[in-house]
Each structure stands twice: as structure tokens, then as C-alpha cells.
Amino acid sequence: MGDKPIVRDIKQAINQDLQKRYSTVEEKNTLHTASALDPRFKSLPFLTTDDISATYSKLVVEAASLQPTIRQEETSSASGIEMDGQDLEMEDEGT
Hints:
Layout: H1 5-21, H2 25-37, H3 49-77, E1 81-83, E2 86-88
Antiparallel strand pairs: 1-2
Helix pairs in contact: 2-3
């Protein structure tokens, strides 16, 4: 059995409003990415199979691009001293 007419009308109104608000590809990609990272929606049941694949492919590429940044931060923080969970940078002896 389908939705009652009032429920169908509300769903349609919400859908139309969201289509107006989030009409650009960039906005949609941002929403898809946020949904994929949210454990409640990570299966992305509201997207097509192609959109799901594209969303997760973009996430993998973005995560891989962050890897050099993370390693660089780890290397630069290796010169610091960790004390009580805080990184303290060593001061140059000349200053």
C-alpha cells in the first residue's frame, strides 16, 4: 500500500525544495560525501548504483591525497616533545 495523499504531498514538497536548494553538482557531491561518511546512511540507499560508486571513488581519491599531508605533519611533529598529551616545539638555541 502506498503513502496517504497528505504524506505523498509532503514528500513531494520536501523533494522540490531540496532540488532548488541543492542544485549544483558541487553541492550534491558534498551532500553525497557527507552521507557516505555518516554511519546511518553509508549505504546511500537514495542514490543510483553509479552515483554510489562515484561517491566512494571520490572519497578514496581524497583520502589517498591526504596521506602525504599526514606523513608530513608526523615528520614535522617528530622534532617536538610530547608532554601531558600536548606537543611542545623545541626552541632554537639561538632564540
